[in-house]
Amino acid sequence: MDWSSQQPGSAGNVVYSRLKHQILTLELPPGTVLSEKEMSMVFQMSRTPVRESFVRLAQEGLVLVLPQRGTKVSLIDSELVEEGRFMREQLERAVIRLACEHFPEEMLIALDTNLAMQQESMEKRDDQRMFDLDEAFHRTLFEGCRKLGTWAVIQQMNSHLNRSRMLWLSTDQHWNPLYEQHKEMVEAIRRRDPNHAERVMKMHLNLSISNMEVLKEKYPNYIK
Amino acid sequence: MDWSSQQPGSAGNVVYSRLKHQILTLELPPGTVLSEKEMSMVFQMSRTPVRESFVRLAQEGLVLVLPQRGTKVSLIDSELVEEGRFMREQLERAVIRLACEHFPEEMLIALDTNLAMQQESMEKRDDQRMFDLDEAFHRTLFEGCRKLGTWAVIQQMNSHLNRSRMLWLSTDQHWNPLYEQHKEMVEAIRRRDPNHAERVMKMHLNLSISNMEVLKEKYPNYIK
DNA sequence: GCTACCACACTTGTATGGTAGCATTGAACT
DNA sequence: AGTTCAATGCTACCATACAAGTGTGGTAGC
């Protein structure tokens, strides 16, 4: 939820968003210890804004603050991954049904251009960009249904799910079927076929499930 | 999401939870200006932990901090109310279907005792307690399906919805049909009848919709 | 060699003073 | 009378100092 306002350039905000990004991209792997002092030196500022960002990250479950002992990037919690998947499935299925009833034209166009960029990125084998485009695609669905707040909440709950997907991405990823399903969903919205759209969405989300068992075996230190 | 850890008795936490409670119960009405200094005097502590709690409340959208001007309790945002309702409906419908497939016995018993207390509170006309019991009832549904994280996220998104319900409560409230529906849902879970359970849940949530138009007329200063 | 203990180097939590920016007021000016 | 603008008092923001808890390594005593 990003209505945290405050001036975007404030010291506290830059370290917050920077750290958040690094955590979500696994640049800061789960379990990394952080320390307010160390970060204050890295970012060339006092402890206060750093601490502030730690508090916000803790609020979102991205870091774990242990009083008087230290702060570390939270491990990926399998339960939360499953819950995130569950929640996302319910909401996305509902939203795409909404989209079939009413969806603004300009948003449909946005989806088209997004699809084009997906194809391009796929050929370039640019996984990170593909990941971002995938996210933007779904986000646009919510935006078109005026449900951006819902999307924000999903994002928050899915910090754990997304990190596991990020791990999964490095092991193996076939974008093609996902892309095809994206196209199929847009067509279904144009045809105003909620049942078909919902069915594709359900399959789509099941495809991007990462197998936690395998991940836990491969990256035991990252997963709780 | 309350895995913000930190020692529960820390100064920052007490002011955070106290303020949060006061905001959600409208003890601090929307639009109230807060000021770090003032609160630090009220709670007999320095500005630092107060400021920290402000940051956390802002993260949840409960207060709005305007950089060099002040901090005030956020107005009830009609869009967020609608989104909260939407999100809650989707997730509760899905969860009660899950509950019909599998629900631990002790949780069913918890629902029974909750129902008994609801009846008692209804006779006593204790609206606030009824409100809390209602919340506990739904929370138990999520708990039984191991979806407490989802419930936490709903609660967060619903801070605006709940405040509007709190307003609505003071104008007019008929608990009886809600109570009957609660009973009916428990029965449906026992019978393992997902379709009926979901239908009742849908009606149930529609009942507790507060009419934003009316509210906006009655409390124009509270609503955006 | 083993254990108990203590000093020290960390950590986060809290207090406080100073800074920059916004808003209001009121006086000077047109 | 209406307008401009500077003084003033407010705010959140940040830096710094101190307090208090935790873990660790070294050392004295056995």
TrEMBL record, chains A, B:
Membrane-spanning residues: none
Source species, domain of life = Bacteria
Domain named HTH gntR-type is located at 9-76
InterPro entries for the chain: GntR_C, TF_FadR/GntR_C, Tscrpt_reg_HTH_GntR, WH-like_DNA-bd_sf, WH_DNA-bd_sf
The GO molecular function terms of this record are: DNA binding; DNA-binding transcription factor activity
Q: Which Pfam families match?
A: FCD, GntR
Record keywords, A-Z: DNA-binding, Transcription, Transcription regulation
Q: Which SUPFAM superfamilies match?
A: GntR ligand-binding domain-like, Winged helix' DNA-binding domain
The identity of this protein, by name, is GntR family transcriptional regulator
Q: Which organism is it from?
A: Cohnella luojiensis
